[in-house]
Design goal:
11 helices, alpha+beta, 26% strand, five-stranded antiparallel sheet, Peptidoglycan synthesis regulatory factor (PBP3), Domain 2, Beta-lactamase, cell wall biogenesis/degradation, globular, 416 residues, four-stranded antiparallel sheet
Length: 416
């Protein structure tokens, strides 16, 4: 009798529990996965991390230094000025090629035919002939190392059907990246009315390419390499020479793309890595090749000397939290990401982390809900945070769940 009275009382309590409702839309609900749309930074309003801009002596008309990991602008000089950019244009061409590789639209070993239009391109080229075929990988090398216009057009026609259609994709991609002061008229960078960009926009597309497709560095690091022309007259060898002499002149250089025309002047979007820092430096309209390289080195050296990176891979275990009114009694947590902080004041100190969590949580909980955060300080100054997320979903307990738990408990418990 005592057993059945106890069971009846438990079922009554179970029912009263289920009528409790959770206000999931409460402003203070810690499970709300809220995001705010930050205003897009425009190239006409570029702000740098430094309160007082450093004084650097540069010969280029426009210049910019960016942290690749965060997109933070560390230095800029006329970076919003629209200018012709010559073969630096090819960074966008390469971005679309690597996107196609990632989407498996093309493969590195695919053979690409060369059209009469592609073979007729002037400027820097590798002298592809109409009817010749080359692999995607060989054409990438021709573009990256030798800045080949004919290889660019061959790839553009393969991916979009025509250079014109490919250029439309270039402009659409530029718009999606927030390159508000850029317009492409061809895929090579030949001087044409309506073909322009800015140092800031170039840094944006350089970051998109290098961060998402780091395999590009396998090609930008090539100094010299031979390719073979396969034509109706037979096979001939051609040597690719890297137009980016920074690869040999600066030990931390990793890429990226040079450009020159009489209208654009000497241009370069360069990448370099040192002490855990990855920087992108852009110069436009430098008076000469040597001056272009010197400006880039000045930007990199200033950045490496005045910045310091602090990171936490967040590999430590997080505590489990008690869960009320849930199907499970404990919630596992995970970090949303690793932590990265670039200190631009060259501050010496030790990074400290504080875990901020509630004592307990209430169901329902969705996987990925923000439960708390890890707050990072440097010399007692808060420098950032990383969200702590629910690593699993825990639904609200049901009447059936509660009854099953109670029955399981009663029948497995020892009698008095």
């Amino acid at each position: 009798m005592r057993f059945f009275l106890g069971l009846l009382l438990s079922l009554s309590l179970c029912f009263s529990t289920l009528v409790y409702t959770v206000n999931a839309h409460s402003e203070n609900n810690i499970f709300m996965n809220t995001t705010s749309d930050a205003d897009a930074e425009t190239a006409s309003d570029i702000t740098t991390e430094h309160t007082a801009a450093p004084v650097l002596t540069l010969t280029a008309s426009s210049a910019l230094l960016m942290d690749a990991a965060t997109g933070t602008v560390l230095f800029e000089q006329n970076a919003a000025k629209e200018r012709p950019i010559a073969s630096v244009t090819k960074i966008m061409t390469l971005l679309l090629i690597f996107q196609a590789l990632h989407n498996q639209t093309i493969q590195l070993e695919d053979l690409i035919p060369v059209s009469a239009h592609a073979a007729s391109m002037g400027g820097s080229q590798v002298y592809l002939e109409e009817g010749e075929t080359q692999t995607v990988e060989t054409l990438i090398k021709c573009i990256v190392v030798a800045s080949a216009n004919d290889a660019c057009v061959a790839m553009a026609e393969q991916l979009a059907g025509s250079e014109e259609a490919f250029v439309q994709q270039m402009n659409e991609t530029a718009a999606s990246l927030g390159m508000l002061h850029t317009h492409f008229a061809n895929c090579c960078g030949l001087d044409t009315e309506g073909h322009y960009s800015t140092a800031y926009d170039i840094a944006l597309m350089s970051r998109e390419l290098t961060v998402n497709y780091p395999e590009i560095f396998d090609y930008t690091s090539i100094w010299m390499e031979d390719i073979t022309h396969h034509t109706a007259r037979g096979d001939t060898s051609f040597t690719l020479n890297n137009t980016n002499h920074l690869i040999k002149q600066y030990p931390y250089a990793t890429g990226l793309k040079t450009g020159f025309t009489s209208t654009a002047g000497f241009c370069l979007s360069a990448t370099a890595s040192k002490d855990g820092m990855d920087f992108i430096a852009v110069v436009l309209n430098a008076p000469g090749s040597k001056e272009r390289m010197a400006d880039i080195k000045t930007l990199f050296e200033w950045g490496f000397a005045n910045c310091q990176v602090y990171t936490d891979e967040n590999l430590d275990s997080l505590p489990k939290l008690p869960v009320s009114r849930g199907r499970h009694s404990q919630l596992s947590l995970k970090y949303e990401s690793a932590f990265y902080h670039l200190d631009t004041t060259n501050t010496a100190g030790e990074l400290a982390k504080k875990i901020e969590l509630p004592d307990s949580v209430e169901a329902p909980i969705k996987k990925g809900d923000i439960i708390g955060k890890a707050v990072y300080t440097l010399n007692d100054n808060t420098v950032g945070s990383v969200n702590l997320l629910a690593s699993e979903s825990i639904p609200l307990i049901t009447l059936k769940d509660t009854c099953q738990q109670l029955l399981h408990r009663f029948f497995l418990s020892e009698p008095d």
